[in-house]
């Protein structure tokens, strides 16, 4: 979090009691938000630090599979016939081109889901909204959710806010999330850390889980 | 939106097709998020440009009442006995002190609800999550939602993202929303305008409604 | 509603003020619940009066298209790899065989969706739960929802309860809903009429809409 | 489940693979639906076998407290000013009289909540819809939900359908749920057992938990 103007304002948050630490607890799962071809491509919806986030999410995914943690992926997928066009696709018309068979809606090859991993399709920012993600986590008794993906100031942030609203402890993996622009990336990590989630690199998250999740 | 660093990055959003305009349509309602005593007080959760937002929301509320638009207010209200403490109150422990009878959880006097206006209690950022707000709007055939309140980077933003996810067109009244710190305020207005909502001062919103909502 | 035992108990409902009439209002849409091949086949999940319900839903669909009312369909669709197996598919294991390419999960040919009609996939009883149905209706300013489909005591009922909870006025088309067994069909129509919806044949629903929805 | 006509139809359910057993698993909680004064009173919304259900729920609550299982209660509570009147209160106008201070909306004394037990207010059938119940359970890693309360064919049933949709295994305590009329009570227990939940008396549920939840 390099944004000086935000650091400059951290004082008011501290005085008002924001930013308390949040430790992992109970069963752990990994959510990978929208790391699809179109968000890896700077000519479509990608750019910024997303490539690095994908590279590091490969590591996060490998750890989750090794540990046997449930893994969920989200994709933005609109209907072919425009029947589910919505406010989001009015604001960002290109979203509606992410149909099931558009190669840009496919998860990037290096993070391709294995059988048994959940893949939710969505037409809104949050991976929880209008999907089976929250029930799928609850069914498995998950209490802590590692979050990777793109973009930090969009679908990642919305998913993290919903994760905590749904009762799951979000650990945002700061080196596994990326955005097309660094300002919004930094601003959202600041907000997430102050109000909604623990924010730390993958390595620190693994240590915290080791320490707190028996 | 004065944040230079964000303006500097607006190019990538424009190239990728973000920030399309969103016009009001159909029936209109007004949502006032968390303008309670504790968020008006810089010693509690307030500060920044929230006082100005409250003053201007008085005007927005007067217009809504004059026009007969449905009005909904939200308050953060936790149980007296700690039974509904949650991830949000772990991150920001002071939130859990906003109990029903704590004067800081009361809506500020100048925006006191009238009979028939909905008041939803919540323990999460979004005024929609775990409340009757979406059904209440749907029951009235509302398609456009004016949004005022605090804080821009927190409960306002989460409510706007949910509003658009629930199918309502959000018009964020830029002079009726405020935050304890200007950096997060500006960053969230930028994101909201690029991806989720129309963002404009009250006066412009009224003109747009006049023009588009028969 | 032919179940004598239920008629016998109608008195207590009347004394306690249940069963008030509910009139249509505002914009109208049609929801067709799970009228897929597998629910039309008595050897799979069908039987009872479902064939008659399908035949009459053909008429309802024709009217809706003629009137320009938005039409939504639901299908039960589980993932091919078992990744979204859930409590419902534990209770009724055959449900999980309704995968995307299983012909039994396809909407029956006589009700095949036209472009622009919404089709939601679900893995739970309600067509609203974990889908985009409520936002899709809200976006269109719908206030009244005609409901057809199968089965009355299952996915239809759950969808009607959610419809009214989401703020939409449900009109259950009694000749367009069916069930594999008449007892549960009758019992659910009784409950729906007493507590949650207007229940009437298609012809009466059209008259009521004519009268109340300008 | 004494309804002969329903037993007569059980064959089709068996042939189609319904009614598989569902075992408890993981952490357990108890939900008590709407056991308030007005639903205990045959002159208001009560009657039938609700008194017996209350008596037996006293035992269920005692066990839950002894075992340290989280306990949640629901109440129907409408606003004093009619601002949240909805489709439910159109169908059953008396519901809207259950305001916060109406003695009929209070939980019956023998089941009065202790500090730390969640009490959710709702204006719809399901205790999950528009409340914090699902997040509260998820936060505690609950996987199995015992359900008691009233009425079987109304708020209990809607809550059970939502419980399983949200990913929790519902165990409906057949001697702890009641209804104003026996026909709908029996019909709903039949449906719940066939499709959505395990249904058994408290004693059997405790044995099953002993056996399966380490």
What's the helical proportion of residues of chain A? 25-40%
Per DSSP, the total helix count of chain A is 8
Secondary-structure element series of chain A: HEHHEHEHEHEHEH
Coarse morphology of chain A? globular
Distance between the termini of chain A: 30 Å
Q: Any idea how many domains of chain A?
A: 1
The CATH topology of chain A: Rossmann fold
Low-pLDDT windows of residues of chain A: 1-5
Biggest β-sheet strands, sense, barrel of chain A:
6 strands, parallel
Q: Mind telling me the CATH class of chain A?
A: Alpha Beta
Query: Beta-strand level of the residues of chain A, as a percent range?
Result: 15-25%
Radius of gyration of chain A: 17 Å
Mean pLDDT of chain A: 95
Describe this structure in words.
By secondary structure, chain A is an alpha/beta fold. Chain A has one domain (25-212): Rossmann fold, CATH 3.40.50.850. Helix content of chain A is 40%, strand content 19%. Chain A contains eight helices and six strands. A six-stranded parallel β-sheet of chain A has the order 3-2-1-4-5-6, with helices on both faces. In chain A, strand 2, helix 4 (87-91) and strand 3 form a beta-alpha-beta unit. In chain A, helix 6 runs parallel beside helix 7 (182-195). The longest helix of chain A is centred in the first third of the chain and has 18 residues, at 50-67. Chains in contact: A-B, A-C, A-D, B-C, B-D, C-D. Chains A and B meet through helix 1, helix 4, helix 6 and helix 7 of A and helix 1, helix 5, helix 7 and helix 8 of B.
